Structure of Fork-head domain-containing protein:
Amino acid sequence: MQALQVARQFLLQQASGLSSPGNNDSKQSASAVQVPVSVAMMSPQMLTPQQMQQILSPPQLQALLQQQQALMLQQALLWESLSRSRHLPAGPSVSRQPSHERAGRCFGVSSPPPALTHSRPAVDPQLQEYYKKQQEQLHLQLLTQQQAGKQQPKEALGNKQLAFQQQLLQMQQLQQQHLLNLQRQGLVSLQPSQASGPLQTLPQAVCPTDLPQLWKGEGAPGQPAEDSVKQEGLDLTGTATTATSFAAPPKVSPPLSHHTLPNGQPTVLTPRRDSSSHEETPGSHPLYGHGECKWPGCETLCEDLGQFIKHLNTEHALDDRSTAQCRVQMQVVQQLEIQLAKESERLQAMMAHLHMRPSEPKPFSQPLNPVPGSSSFSKVTVSAADSFPDGLVHPPTSAAAPVTPLRPPGLGSASLHSGGPTRRRSSDKFCSPISSELAQNHEFYKNADVRPPFTYASLIRQAILETPDRQLTLNEIYNWFTRMFAYFRRNTATWKNAVRHNLSLHKCFVRVENVKGAVWTVDEREYQKRRPPKMTGSPTLVKNMISGLSYGALNASYQAALAESSFPLLNSPGMLNPGSASSLLPLSHDDVGAPMEPLPSNGSSSPPRLSPPQYR
DNA sequence: CAAAAGGTAAACACAG
DNA sequence: GCTGTGTTTACCTTTT
């Protein structure tokens, strides 16, 4: 994860120099539900379903689930055909991963597939051999290239370096070409755009966090190159190994859409970032920094550049291992670029939605894409009745699209499908204060059977504070709940009990005897005391995402503008401006209470719920 | 791992 | 006795 963040930041630094991948990407993304690549890449190996829910909005999560399902299907089919034709063992087991299953089941959708890399099929020997041949072929090509480079007279060290770099570059290009070949032949599958239909196969791609292991696995110096190749064959999880199952005969396979990356970049990358902000002065080397070799997984200390060069030539010579590592690195870069493209596209969409000038938060130079953000809704069936006053496209509230997640506008990710339990406390940080959130999405909650992403306490408080005299009877609180939220029109026993429980439990709710009975009021001071305001910003992941997305680069005025805007995401405490939330009186930090969707437990005690347990 | 917070369930008391 | 209200406890999950 850290590696991913670092890499992303690195990419972001270079974003201005990149050939605005987002532009090219828009074509592809227009037809696909956008799942943040960052998430898709990480999941499911790297993220728990809960974490995924934190980061993903329901549509995105949905899309991800669908992706993974499709992947599973794809794999299953391939396995089937393979095992038919090649007598391979049955495909990877599909039923497992209770935690994922849990998430899926709750939402009324089938469970997402297990981590693909968790069940690795044995590599088909034929294919491995073919793959190896390809490697050798590539190696030969590379050697040829290298020879060509060596023919040139050795001049100054700088020239030598330059030539070396060029070789490296060529090597990478060739690697990429080789990769492309493999992809075309179905040996390697990693490009998101290759997935069937609009789906993306990111989980199949090499996951950055796998890299250390990968590097370690391959990186043992002195290891016979062949071994490392084999090992790599096994280690290149998403690529060679998984790809083996795709085993098409070595020829075939019309290129089709395999040419381009999802972001539209040609698959043959130019690894050299001309605009690379990192110093590439004559006295340095991109793979040399802070006295150590930056070759992935190496970190060998080198006193000076000369020593490093020597080290580079000896330890990282042009062998199978190096090329394999190189290829992996390329995949990493590709994935990161894809990710960058998508994230920047999303940022653009967010800014477009806020009517902000695109120039403000700089790093991305793409023109505003009118819809990319809402492209996450692109798979959502929208009926006329689902149009909301704010002009946004809202998810349907009917059962017309059972698999379609409902998402209130502007709501980050807190709530999922109705009955879909998600208690995402951290993701509340993405939610607006309850009052504005409710004001904005009043209609949505009123009609959609979506559990509001607020705690009972905050809802009760809101109900009470909405009244002129700021007091309500229990029954009136009940009525408020049912009036405001479709979700609370059912399953009454549960939530009413919870309401009572909360009223009694929290000191902030004061029972006052009244003429006509008892009413409940809010002790605001107690309420604020309940939880100290934190600038938490949620899990590290989110923080990293934020920093990675350069939100931190937003200047004060921009933040102020955001604070005044009604943008729930950025307006919420924990994002950008913790103080801004308190300006949205009368509700403050704790308005973002915990969303109340509890995950059905791991099946242990609390029964998983497809829908709330009892209806009355 | 522990604490805190939140959600759910349930038992119980009490008043109408 | 039933129902609604209110309190309390227990247990769970998630987050920090």
Notes: Chain A has a mean pLDDT of 49. The first helix of chain A runs from residue 2 to 13. Residues 50, 423-426, 474-475, 500-501, 503-505, 511, 517-518, 534, 536, 538-539, 594, 598-602, 604-606 of chain A lie near DNA strand C (CB under 10 Å from a C1'). Strands of chain A lie at 288-289, 292-293, 509-514, 517-522.
